[in-house]
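Session log. Operator J.P. requested a structure for one protein chain; no other inputs attached. Running the standard single-chain path with C-alpha cell output.
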Amino acid sequence: MGNLLNWNFLTAFTSVVGEVKNADITKSFELMGKGMLGIFVVMLLIYLVIVLLNRFTGSNKEK
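Structure written below.
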C-alpha cells in the first residue's frame, strides 16, 4: 500500500523511462505553448502576405 500512495509532490508520476517531475511537465507545457504561438504567428504572416499580394497584383475590375 505504501507504493500506491505517492507523498512526494515533486514527482508527478513514474513512467517506464523514469520519474516525471512537476517541473518537467511545466517546462513541456511552456515549450508546447511557444510552439503553438509560433505556428499561429506564421499562419498570420502567410495570411497577411496573401492579402497584400491580392491587393497589389489582383486584376482590375473595370466596368
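Operator note: The first strand starts at residue 11 and ends at 14.
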